[in-house]
Amino acid sequence: MAPAPRYPGDALSNARRTLYVVLLGALTALGPFTIDLYLPAFPVVQHDFQTTAAMVQLTLTGTMIGFGLGQLIVGPLSDKVGRRVPLLIVTGLHVAASVVACIAPTLLMLGGARVVMGIGAAAGGVVAMAMVRDLFGGRRLVVMLSRLSLVSGVAPVAAPLIGSALLLVMPWRGIFLVLAAYGLVMLVCSLFVLPETLVRDARGAAAGTLTLGQRYASVFRDRVFVGVLIIGAMAFSGLFSYLSSSSFLFQDGYGFTPQQFGLLFAANSVGVVGGVQIAARLANRYGPQWVLAWSTAALVASSIAIIVTDQLHLGMWGTIIPLFFFMTACGFTFPCGQALALDRHGAAAGTAASLLGAANSVVAGLVSPIVGVIAAGSGITATTMAMVMVGCALVAVLALWALVRPRTVPMMGE
After folding, report:
1. Which residues 6+ apart lie within 8 Å of 54 measured at CB?
2. Would the keyword Transmembrane be found if you checked this record's keyword annotation (predicted)?
């Protein structure tokens, strides 16, 4: 007689498992698409509103702050009432806010709509991650998170390409109608395809008897979780410093067209996707904590290399090559950090996932404008961008060895 499945997802057919991963990955990708799709339009938005690059970057900051705050609400709520209801409500909010952004007559209204879009996109990322943890655990959790990241990793690769192509056939405002349509498709799929993965018995035992403060306290008492939280936030902030600066750096600094920028952005983003997939194999063999040891060191080395090559005036390729390695190191970092955090807190997966996502979004939103502040009056350069990336990478290394302490973390079970 075959043993009973240890986790619910173990009993799913391969076809059903693949369907869930694709849909959950697409939900997770709603956030990156909301961020990246209009990056090639930054210079055009700046011209239309007759404002500064730093002010345009603030609309991106608003999106990230909204995304983070939304996750702090949706995550614990999904532990309390289930995954589907918060997902449906907040995704509908994203659709409405996207339409408002399309017709916004002022930069202030656009920024406000972007904040609400961020809140609306929050459900996709946090609920998808929590659903994966509801279904899987142990080493299979690492594999499933890496597959989820592969699907969602298509977003930063495809979004700038799609955004730059859309600018050829429509004004920048049309990009937000495309985002509204994407959100509507996700809303329909969530309504008719995705099941409730947090069953009522588990819901009552895991979260129903705990207050919001108790759920947060249960994860914050875990030093490994706190360390991973900091590592993920710093890696994402370093990556986001590139995201918020790249359109100005490569289009204004190196003279790229929006279409050339989209191709370059996509080529660099391949590093993230490749890193995510290789990380799953290495984590299964050596443990995610040791993959983080190497990836955080690579973040420091590659970001320093960008400064060195820029100061040596090695030009565009001197920036692109180490930048590719930085993004690849981010790809190694994200799924390993998520796996360590979620595997330790299955009973509060929504809360843990919300904290991971919120830390990434809020910290990145606060850190990325520093590039514009440093570059004020002289324009964004590879050095000003990489200075922030180096600082983020160094904090990640400190968090790994001071809090996570890889030697003290046991290997994840099957």
Report:
1. 369, 372, 373, 376
2. yes
CA dist 80 and 7 (Å) reads 20
Q: What local confidence, expressed as pLDDT, does residue 151 receive?
A: 67
Tell me which residue has tokens 């005036």: 313
pLDDT averaged over 10-residue windows placed end to end, the chain, 414 residues: 61 79 85 83 86 81 83 81 87 94 92 92 82 77 73 68 86 93 92 80 51 73 90 90 79 78 76 82 84 95 95 89 92 85 71 78 76 70 88 95 88 58
CA dihedral 388, 390, 391, 394 (to 10 degrees): 160
Which tokens belong to 200? Answer: 């009522």
Domain 18-408 has CATH 1.20.1530.10: no
pTM score:
0.70
C-alpha 90/C-alpha 183 separation (Å) is 10
Q: Which amino acid is at 313?
A: H
Residues across the chain: 414
Amino acid (one-letter) located at 358: A
- What is the C-alpha separation between 82 and 76, in angstroms, rounded? 10
CB-based contact 336:287 (threshold 8 Å):
no
Q: Cα–Cα–Cα angle for 124, 129, 130, nearest 5°? A: 105
pLDDT tens sequence across 178-203: 999 999 999 998 888 888 887 655 44
CA distance readout (Å), 305 to 293, 393, 394: 19, 13, 14
- Going from N- to C-terminal start, the domains of the chain cover 18-408
| Alpha-carbon span 1 to 271, nearest angstrom | 44
